[in-house]
Amino acid sequence: MKKVLALVFVLVLGALIMNHLNDNNLFAGFGDAMLENRVSQSYIDRDATENNDGVVFDESLDLESGAANTVTAIVADYRSFDTLGEVTVLFISSFGVALLLGQSKKRIALEFKPNFMLKIGSRALFAVILMTGVFVSIHGHLTPGGGFPGGAMIASSMLLLYLADDEFRAKMRGFKILESVMGVFYIILGLAGLMITGFFLENFLDNGALGTLFSAGMIPIVYIIIGLKVGSEISSVIDHFLSEEGA
Amino acid sequence: MLINVLEIIVSILLLLLAFLALSSKSLIKSVMFLSSLSMLSVVAFVLMKAPDVALTEAVIGSGLVTSLFVFTLLATRKVGQKQ
Amino acid sequence: MEIISGVFLIIGGLFYALGGLGIFRMPDTFDRIQAGTKATTLGAFSILIGVAFMFPSWSLKLFLIALFIVLSNPIGSSALAKATYRSFGGPSNVERDDLKEFLGGTKDVD
Amino acid sequence: MLQIAGLLLMMLGLYGLLTNRNVIKIILALNILEIGLNIFIISIGFVRGGEAPIFSSETTSNALVYVDPLPQALVLTAIVIGVGTTALGLAFAKQIYAKYHTFELDEMGEE
Questions:
Q1: Cβ of C55 under 8 Å from any chain A Cβ?
Q2: Does residue B51 contact residue A136 with C-beta atoms inside 8 Å?
Q3: Number of Cα atoms under 13 Å in the Cβ half of residue A15
Q4: Could you list the residue range(s) of the whole structural domain that residue D35 is in?
Q5: For the domain that residue D26 is a member of, what is the CATH number?
Q6: Confidence of residue B38 (pLDDT cuts 50, 70, 90)
Q7: Chains B and A touch (3+ CB pairs under 8 A)
Q8: Is the CB of residue A231 less than 8 Å from the CB of residue D80?
Q9: What DSSP assignment string belongs to D23-38?
């Protein structure tokens, strides 16, 4: 009976969504969305210049946002305040995990004793994955990626060390200090924007030429901050999951 | 035309993997099906021209979330623990 | 240039196909790991060389990818083989089993 | 096609959320719902034949058609929030197991 009720509820919900999606002009069918009516068109155009006659790669200077990656421009420039709130949500969830699982001393012992090859090889792989994470974080405004996947890559390199060596414990205090300092830096960046331009988290640096590494104003700085913050948060979550209640 | 066929195949496989993940009896098998579902959704994101989302999902969905599930099962079931 | 890169790509695809065939045809988990690892390492290398001939400006990134493969592939396969040994025992058709004594010294095999 | 698949995946996850009585299965169904919702939101902005919204030396001109970058930015943050909620839920599951020694909701209560 309960299953039938759940099925009916789910089907009605799906039919309602499908119905309302089809009779709205803004949401055309799959594959023919019309961007002219949406706010996204102005994000793509970057119409900071007077005559909006297109953007030239490696040359355009006076753009509204100098990032080659439009998604990054939205996340870290146009909607940076949103991202600040989102990073706060992640901080609160990692704080909640730390409160729930408690401060414990002992690690869960794995049955799998690591041999020599696994230990040495995972150290080498750790460096490669860490460098990939840093690369992805820094080049967020040019290539796909950015602070969020870069931070997750840093955390997964820590996960590799935790899995390969069953004695390994990272210094949790260092992660917590790094995370707090990065959060403070984000706020300081926003306040600097407030003081210089009059708006919180407004870009106050030079945009540079589109497509070069030192461009896009403060987007690389924001993404480095986000990368370190996300990486340290997820690493501390992993450490809490791999330890058990102290004896 | 090829893209259309690929979209249909990916859609059917996504639904199949979700059904298997929900209906499997063993919890660890469910977690593994969830991991493959997440990996397949990366293909769906790439087909819809969203490389940023695909990269993030590939790192987080199939790496970190799966490891968190496995750690929970490991700690509670006493699977990998010494006597 | 394109012909050279095409030849390398075809060789790489052939190695991948042989690796897949090996995974289907081999009788044992250990043999399958061997087929799946060795053939695909070589296949990945020749595909990377082929791509490097086609786009010479990508060479540095391709070299990094090759470094990652040469580090991660043997480590992963050895960890997989050891986990298989622990869970299901060694291969059935061998005469000597040195790993059993080696592991027996440090920890009892389940 | 992928839009309908995302919607169906969402419905499947919701059905699993309503009918399962196992804590781990509930969190798993929540994850499936999230993946389906992400696919659905991205599919709203998809333009067939459009380019990915990243300028490079090949795809620069504004005359090209790009897919909608705004849903992608929203989903990018939603995925990272998803790992936070999953970690919190699994921490709760771990504490529940430490108290009741089971994951099934029906078997709890007698301690």
A1: no
A2: no
A3: 6
A4: 2-46+64-100
A5: 1.10.287.3510
A6: very high
A7: yes
A8: no
A9: HHHHHHHHHHHHHHHH
Tens of pLDDT, residue by residue over B18-37, are: 999 999 888 888 999 999 99
**pLDDT value of position B79:** 46
φ/ψ (deg, to 5) at D5: -65, -40
Beta bridge partners of B23: none
Answer with the residue of higher pLDDT: A26 or A39.
Answer: A39
What is the interface pTM, i.e. ipTM, of the complex? 0.85
**Domain tally for chain B?**
1
Which residues does B contribute to its contact with A (CB < 8 Å)? Answer: 51-52, 54-56, 58-60, 63-64, 67-68, 71-72, 74-75, 79-82
Within a domain: D16: yes
Contact between residue B57 and residue B37 where contact means Cβ atoms under 8 Å apart: no
Contact A32 D47 (CB under 8 A): yes
Residue at token pair 């355009």: A60
Domain assignment present for residue D10? The answer is: yes
Contact between A109 and A244 under an 8 Å Cβ cutoff? The reply is: no
Instruction: Give the model's confidence band at A201: pLDDT under 50 very low, under 70 low, under 90 confident, else very high.
Output: confident
pLDDT in tens, D39-66: 999 988 888 888 888 877 766 666 677 8
* For chain C, percent of residues with pLDDT exceeding 90: 1
Cα–Cα–Cα angle for C51, C56, C62, nearest 5°?
55
Inter-chain touch C71–A124, beta carbons under 8 Å: yes
**C-beta atoms surrounding C45 within 10 Å:** 18
How many whole angstroms from its chain centre is CA C62?
18
Confidence of residue A245 (pLDDT cuts 50, 70, 90): low
pLDDT at position A165: 77
Q: Which residues 78-107 of C are in CB contact (within 8 Å) with A?
A: 78-79, 82-83, 86, 106-107
Number of domains in chain C: 1
Beta carbons within 8 Å of A171's beta carbon, 6+ residues apart:
none
- The parent domain of residue C36 ranges over 2-106
Contact B7 D2 (CB under 8 A): yes
Flag whether B48 is in a domain.
yes
Q: From CA D5, how far away is CA B13, in angstroms rounded?
A: 10
> For residue D15, is it within any domain?
yes
Query: Which positions in chain D touch B59 (Cβ < 8 Å)?
Result: none
What distance in Å separates residue B5's CA from the closest CA in chain D?
10
Residue C107's pLDDT band, with cuts at 50, 70 and 90, is: very low
Q: Are the C-beta atoms of D7 and A18 separated by less than 8 Å?
A: yes
CB contact under 8 A, D48 and A230: no
Q: What pLDDT score was predicted for residue A214?
A: 79
- Residue numbers of D between 32 and 91 with CB closer than 8 Å to A: 43-48, 52-57, 60-63, 66-70, 72-73, 76-77, 79-81, 83-85, 87-88, 90-91
Residue B34 belongs to what domain range? 2-77
Contacts of B10 (CB under 8 A, 6+ apart): B40, B43, B44, B47, D2, D5
